[in-house]
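Quick one, T. Sequence first:
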Amino acid sequence: MSEKEIENKNKPNYLAIALVLSLVAMGAVLYLNYSEKTRLEGDLTLSEAELETAYFQLDSIGDELSDRILTISQLGGRVDSLVMVKEQLENEKEQIRNRTNKEIGDLRSRVDGYRELLLAKDEEIIKLQAINEVLATENTELKVQTNQLNKSLRNLNETKTQLEEKVAVAGQLSIESMKIIAVSSRGKERVDDIKNRHIDKLRIEFAVSENPVAEIESKDILVRIVAPDGNVLFDITRGSGSFIFQDREMFFTAKQEILYDRSRQALGFLYDKGSEYALGLHKVEVYTEDYLMGSGTFIVK
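Structure tokens:
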């Protein structure tokens, strides 16, 4: 072997070395690409899981916010700010699928903020409940006091009404010492055993009793002579008329106006019937205003 052949044999094979290095480099690149792809797929899987978790967290917090809004509203608290937060939360739920990894991290922080808000609103609810309990107690006490006051007013009005009724009854006039006298055409008077031939005129005498609590005023004194058949002797040419008694119209035989001054007053009515009286019991009733002052009877035989 010549020296040149020996030199060529001992010389390094640079081409083979370059080929090996190229293969090694390609392997490294492929490995790195594979590792990056694996990492990205892992990150993508992690992001999807975080999205689902964040969505359900927001959904749960949204339900709790709705409960707080309803409770605070029922307790009379203000819910304007909570409604705005609820709207913001719902908007974030709709946009959550388009979030980046960084935004998911920020969203996690806001979820914590929402939870702190819920805790603060729970404390507000407790305070509102306490206030409402106090108000309910005060309202109950006020109702009791109002009912007691109304009862007292009713009792007072009833007492007043009863007193007024008693005063009105006590102020009513009455008659005493009624006499019914038949006067003949000759002027002869007869009280008993009266017959038609004895009656040319009928004189009715009585006294209005003294009453110190009655009103001092003019009074119409009305006399009704009721025949045995129940009909009232009535002649408008002789001063007869009608009046209202207990919501119905009644007729009177004669009327006389007096000025009552609380003292005893004697009155007399002279009635000329102009015809014979029916046989039997006659009633004489005396009224003023809307009540009966007294009555008497006589019999025609």
